Amino acid sequence: MHFTKSKQNRQANLNGRDHTSGSCGDPAPWPQLQCAWRWLAARRNADWFAHRFRLVIWALAAVTLLAGLGYLEWHPIGTSLRAETGKTAKSPVLFILDASGSMTELFSGVPRMVAARVMLFEQLEKLDADVPVGLVAYGNRIAGCRSARIYGSIRTQNRRDLAEQVKQMHPAGATPIANTLKLIGTNLLPYYPGTTVVLISDGAESCGGDPVREAQKLMQRGYKVKLNVIGLDVDRITAMQLGAIARTGQGQYFDVKNQTDFANAVALSSSSQSATVTNEPTITTDQKPAPTNSDVLLKISKVYPMQDENGQMVWHVTHAFESSQASNYVVVVKALRQPVNPGPGGRIPGDKRLLASQSSLYFQSDSGAGKHVFAMAPIKEALSAGSPLYLQAELWNTSDVPNLIYISEAVLVKP
User: Fold this and answer.
1) Over the stretch 401-413, which tens digit does the pLDDT of each residue have?
2) Looking at 205, 234, 269, which one is the last position of a domain?
3) Which among 158, 231, 293, 373 is least surrounded, fewest beta carbons within 10 Å?
4) How far apart are the C-alpha atoms of 81 and 66, rounded to whole Å?
């Protein structure tokens, strides 16, 4: 009888029903044990949840403390800088760099890519530290018309990372300006309204897109973008297209033909607020002055003809240089109809005497050696019958504004 009653109580407790005989006041031993077990289980569950809750609270407190001290930084998608900081943030600046194949051509005596790299380095230093900056580029040895990539998201405290990305870029590829504007309109500008975009290009759209139309779409979406464009030594037709992009993007077009124009254009185009704009180059405390010309050795070491893999005759030209200090250098080897005086000072003019040129880049080096290959056929076609050919090298210091510091002895070559 007692067993039957206890069984009924167990079943009632399992079903959640209240029976007088199954309550904790029941003097029977089995219901008492069952009630005690339920009480202990509930207490244990409560303690378990309380322990986990305390761990979560401590973890959140630690993350908040680290973020406040500056050890953590995040930029959640879908939020703007204004929402993240809780205060009025300075308008971001986004650089778009042309790293297409044509950026290997010379500009004021140095490759266009080198000139662009130097100007970007300088402007990254001039912009206030609390101005968010990003970097997008196209080309950079990526084939096809979808080469645009985000190399640096828009944020602060990233100057060194951006400079390193620019330093590693190599010009090769097409010029997909329209696709690049489409990329930033999808992935960056919706989350960073009010961005000043600075497009640096030495050519027009080459992938069949409509960059003016893409710029118009950016304006229609209400991103409050200012689209400035720098045309780097472009022809009149290209300047018209680039200028139309800038006008559609509520920005300015800068037609650049020399280093001074370039420096001013980069500074003005990215300085809607807080940028320091000067005509003098900025030299940081860790930069050293360029070596004096007497501390430099530059020579063309060897010139020898041979056949390339296609059976065409070429000249292999090797050069070497030494300097008293490590810096960023560019060696430009030029094929000339007439040589110029060697040594410090002077310059090899880009007039009719220049037939071809090749360049090598050296970063933070005090010496270097390289080899260039010149195709014989086009040079011979440009030369008059019996005319001599000379090879001569220039050494440029590109730590700041590019500076020609030395010209090698000329080497006479028999075509």
Assistant:
1) 677 888 999 998 8
2) 269
3) 373
4) 19
